[in-house]
Amino acid sequence: MTWRWLPNAICVVRLLLVVPVVVLLLKERYAPALVLFMIAGASDAIDGFLAKRFAWQSRLGSLLDPAADKLLVVSVFVSLAYLGLIPPALAAVVVARDAVIVLGALTYQLVIEPVVGQPTAVSKLNTACQLAFVVFTLVHEITGGWPARISLLVLGAAVVFTSITSGLGYVVGWGKRAWRIKHQAAA
Q1: N or C: which end of the chain has fewer CB within 10 A?
Q2: Is the per-residue pLDDT at 1 higher than 70?
Q3: What does the alpha-carbon distance between residue 173 and residue 167 come to, in Å, rounded to a whole number?
Q4: Contact, 3 vs 54, CB < 8 A?
Q5: Model confidence pLDDT, tens digit, residues 122-160
Q6: What is the DSSP letter of 137?
Q7: pTM of this structure
Q8: Closest Cα to residue 78, out of 61, 99, 52, 55?
Q9: Quick one: pLDDT at residue 13?
């Protein structure tokens, strides 16, 4: 029996955790929402480790993993903005970045060739900033004020900067690749 399916199964669990995380947030039950959010984050690290360590990567996993990540992050940022815990503009930047990436990937897939997920260093930094921001925001609400608002402001600025930088990086990088492939085919 093979365990190749395990990373994808963990990824599906992460997808399923989105709904209870959002429901708990909307009910302002921040501590259990934080626990589930952290479980979802840990599941991302675990499924990635298993896929790489045991060569259990699959085409499905390469699409499912980033989709689960984006759905979780976007849902949480929108929920936090709805609750008034973060500025709506911050949530809009996060949503816009992911929308650009998803629409770009779909377009590339349909027009050029199959997309192979390749997260950049700034994209990984963006994910770390987003996760830290969510965790610190929820901890701030749970504790009634720790960490200080200035910490959230700095992390929020880092989320905006890395979101814009990584989004533009994907647009430029995949745009160059598409241009090169289209012009090589024409030559």
Answers
A1: N
A2: no
A3: 10
A4: yes
A5: 998 999 999 999 999 999 999 999 999 999 999 999 999
A6: H
A7: 0.91
A8: 99
A9: 94
